Fold this sequence. Notes:
Layout: H1 10-24, H2 26-38, H3 42-47, H4 49-70, H5 84-105, E1 106-109, E2 115-118, E3 120-126, E4 131-137, E5 150-154, E6 164-168, E7 171-176, H6 220-224, E8 226-234, H7 240-249, E9 255-258, E10 261-266, E11 277-283, H8 291-302, E12 318-325, H9 328-336, H10 340-343, E13 348-354, E14 369-371, H11 376-390, E15 394-399, H12 407-413, E16 418-420, E17 423-426, H13 428-433
Parallel strand pairs: 11-12, 11-15, 12-13, 13-14
Antiparallel strand pairs: 1-2, 3-4, 3-9, 4-8, 5-6, 5-10, 7-8, 15-17, 16-17
Helix pairs in contact: 2-4, 11-12
Amino acid sequence: MLTILSNDSGKSLEGNYQDLRVVGYFDKGTIVMIILLITSLDRIRIATYESFLIAHIVLSIITLVGCFYHTVIFEGNEYWKYLWPSVVIWVIDRLLRIVRLCYCNTHVSLSHKGLVKTTATRMTYDEGADVVRMEVIPGTSSLHPSPGQYYFLYQPFRLTGWESHPFTIGAWSYETGDQSSLAPTSLDQLGKPPDVSHLPLLSGSSSDQDSLTILGDASPAEKEQQMLKLIFWVRPYDGWTRNLRQQCLRSPSMTTEAGILLEGPYGDTFPVWRYESVLMIVGGTGIASAVPYIQDHLRRSVQDWERDSHNEKTRVRDIELVWTARQTAFILDVSRRELKSAFDRDDFSASFYTTRDSTACMNEPGIEIQPGRPHLQSLVMSRAADACSAGSSLAILALLSSAIPNLFPITLLSVGSIFTGDAFSLEPDDAAEA
C-alpha cells in the first residue's frame, strides 16, 4: 500500500502520479524481462544459439538502461548506486577478455626490431571425414597447453565477429620454421618412436608449466625458434562451423588461411598417469579429448627423470581406446597422424567403429575398423572386473552423448567406483568393499 501525504491540490497530486507511471516504464521493463527469460530456455538456446546470444545481449542492455530510467524519478538518483556495480562488472569483464585476447594472439619481439607476431591459422576440410582440421600457431609463445583443456575461438573479421566457441584441443606440436609455414605435417615426417623428441608431444600435468617437450640436443637458438602449433577438429553443423566449411570449399585445395583468434586455455587435466590401466571411450570429434592423454603418456614413458623432476612418472601399463565415428576417413586420418606413434607400442590398443560407412578399409595394416557401435556396458563391466581381479587401478575417460554416460555409474556400482565428471577411477580398495 502506498500512502501519499501532500498539501498540494488534487490536480497536482494526479500529475505527480502520472509522472511516476509514465517515467517508471514498469510495463515495458516487465515485457523485456519476460522475453529475456523465454529466450534463455534450453531448447531455444540449443536450437538457435546465435539468435539467443544477440537477443540476450540486446535485451540485457535494454533492461539495465531501463532500470536507470525507472529510478530517475527519485531525488538525487539515490538508487543508481545499486545499478552502477552491474555496469562496472560488465565493463571490467569485457576489458579483461580483450586484454586476454591480445595476450594470446600477439607478441612483440624487441630483439627483431619490434616485429609483431600474430596468430596464424590454416583450415583444411576433409570431405570424406566431414571435419575441418584447424592448425593454429598462436602469436604468443607463453601458452602452455595440457590434456583436457579447451580454447575459445573467434573469427573477428565477420559480421558476427563477437561470437566465441569452445573447442577441446586435439593435439599440439613444437616446430621450427616460419610462422607462415602451416602445411599439414604427418608423423611420417617427424620420425618414429621411441624417440619422441620429434613427435607432437604434450606438456605434463597441469602443475608442469616449465618443461613442455623434449627438445633433444637442440641448441638454445633452436629452442628459441620452437613454435607451438595447436590442432583442433571441427565438425561443421550450422552457424559458424558451417561457415568454416564454406570458407574451405571456396579453395580448390579445400585449404585456406583464416583470421582466427583464440582465448585460453581453460579446463583441468585429469591425472590418468596415476592409474595402471586407462580406458578411453570417445565418439566423433570427442577423440580430441583422448589424443592429448595418449601422447602425454608417450612422453612420460620415455622422460629423462633425472633431468626433469617437475613431472610425475607414469604408472600406466596399458591404454585402451574405443572410438566410434561416422566416417572411416576421419579415423584413418587421425590414426596416420596423431596416433601413429602409439600403434608402435605394446602398452596401447585401439578399437574403432564406424556408424555410417558399411565397410571398413582393409588397406591399412594394423588398423581394424568395425561397423556399428560397441556394447559399452559389457565393455566397462569387463574392464572393471579385470582391474578388480588383478588388484590394479583403472581410470575410465568418456566423451559421448549426454545420454550414454548415465550407464557408467550404474555399471561401476557393482564393482565399486569413484565418479568425477566424465572421468571415472576405480581403485582396488573400493572394489573390495563393494
